[in-house]
Every structure is written in structure tokens, then in C-alpha cells.
Amino acid sequence: MFQRIGRALLALVVVVSVLSICQAAPPPPVTALAYRPNGKQLAAGLRNEVQLLDAMSGTVVYHIPGQTGQVTALAWSRDGVWLATVCGVAGKSGEVRLYRNPSTSPEKTIAAHADVIHDMAFSPDGKSLA
């Protein structure tokens, strides 16, 4: 009798363990957001990537992988051609990457300084970042 109950409990523990392993992990937290100036897309910063979402449906339409750590700030140029991303690890590194008409490889990477940058913006003429 006890052997049957023990086996049943063991089987239940195994099933629950397998189910918990098979469940999808929760999505990573969004740490930065920026609307494209035309309002049609939203850039969302996550850990190690940026996702571009359709602003109406919320569907991910493009991935920009390869960010070095948490994405902490995003900014679109006024004309919507350039997307600047800021990523890094607190107390270790921070960098700015510029993407043209978003692609998966940056046009320029700027090693900013030895800490995370929390905000940035394009100048009104789109020629500088602050």
C-alpha cells in the first residue's frame, strides 16, 4: 500500500517538474521605449536586444540583436532614419550604437564611458546626440 502511494507521489513530482521546465519563461522586462516619429513603430529595449513593434498591433516586426547588456535608452532622429541605442552594464561599460533605417549591424558604435547611460536625445537638426 505505502509502496503504491510512494510511487504515485514520485510520478506526480516528476510530472510537475517536467511541466514547470516546459513552461515558457516570462518575457524579459522592457527597459526603454521610443516611438518612431511617424508613429507607426515603437522601439523596445530589452536585455541584449531591441525589438521594433508595429504600434497598432503590438507585433514584433524586427529584431536588433547584439546589444551589450541592458538597453537603457533609445532615441529616433527627427526624420526616423536613425535609431540610437544605449546599452551596457552598470559600473562597467556603456555604449551608444547608431543604426540606419534599422538594420542588424550598427553604422557606428561609441564606447561612451565606464557606466550606464540613462537617457539621450538627438539634437533638433539630427547631427548630434546629447
Task: Report the total helices.
Answer: 1
Main pleated-sheet profile: 7 strands, antiparallel
Q: Which of globular, elongated, flat, extended, rod-shaped describes the shape?
A: globular
Report the span from N to C terminus. Answer: 73 Å
Radius of gyration: 21 Å
Query: Which regions are unreliable across 5 or more consecutive residues at pLDDT < 50?
Result: 5-21
The chain-level mean pLDDT equals 81
According to DSSP, the number of beta strands is 7
Query: How helix-rich are the residues, as a percent range?
Result: 10-25%
Structural class: alpha+beta
Short description:
Helix content is 16%, strand content 43%.
Explain this structure.
- This protein is of the alpha+beta class and 130 residues long.
- The protein contains one helix and seven strands.
- It has one helix at 2-22, and strands at residues 32-35, 41-45, 47-54, 60-76, 82-89, 93-100, 108-113.
- It has a seven-stranded antiparallel β-sheet, with no helix packed on it.
- Strand 6 and strand 7 (108-113) form a beta hairpin.
- It is globular.
- The N and C termini lie far apart (73 Å).
How are the SSEs placed, and which strands pair?
Layout: H1 2-22, E1 32-35, E2 41-45, E3 47-54, E4 60-76, E5 82-89, E6 93-100, E7 108-113
